[in-house]
Amino acid sequence: MSLRKPKLAPQVTTLWDYPSQHYGEGQQGSQAYRGATPSYVVWNVVHRFSSPGDRVLDPFCGSGTTLDVCKDLGREGLGFDLAPSRPDVRQADARSLPLKNRTVDLVFMDPPYADNLTYSDDPRCIGKLKADGRYQRAMRLVLDECARVLREDGVLAIYVCDVFQKGRGFYPLGFDLFEMARAHFVPVDIIAVTRHNRTLEMGNYRKAADEGRFFLRGFNYLLLLRRKKEGAGGARSQGCGQ
Prior knowledge:
Rossmann fold
């Protein structure tokens, strides 16, 4: 017998938790997809920062979680990925989206956390770039695209985790992306979302962290920013695509 998942509820503090990866009787996106975003998190962002009929963009759409949440909430979901996993996810590089200027109301993205996971064999994949400046340069182009396609006052939500790699050190990706985004956006808030990665409870991982004097990643950032109005320091750019 399958267990009924807890009811959806809007989060109202800056510390978010989610009771399961998916809500309802089915799945949003695919639990088998590496690095899949919890649909509870996507639901809360789409519910709070968009209205029925709005256009919601996910430039790193993965298994389509954002599209499924948008369908549930009556939004128009636009999903792109270098390696589409299903027909309603269109192939495109997040650094060059086939969308016109100012045509999107909300952007939700869960980008690669540098080269922490392997997503595809495509050499253009941002998930192949180390956080030594190459990843940051690529993500700056992604943020430029988000600013171009978002309407004035549209919201950008970035779900991201810092990275610690033994022998390579700590990379504060959340801080990096937040500072880069401020070229086009003004901060709304920063949310900490509790992680439920099973490795956090595994004895060998915890022992290694204790003995090696490093920390396991216990939370993700949810960075919330709003598109600057023209004339308020935001850059203008030319439209493309359809």
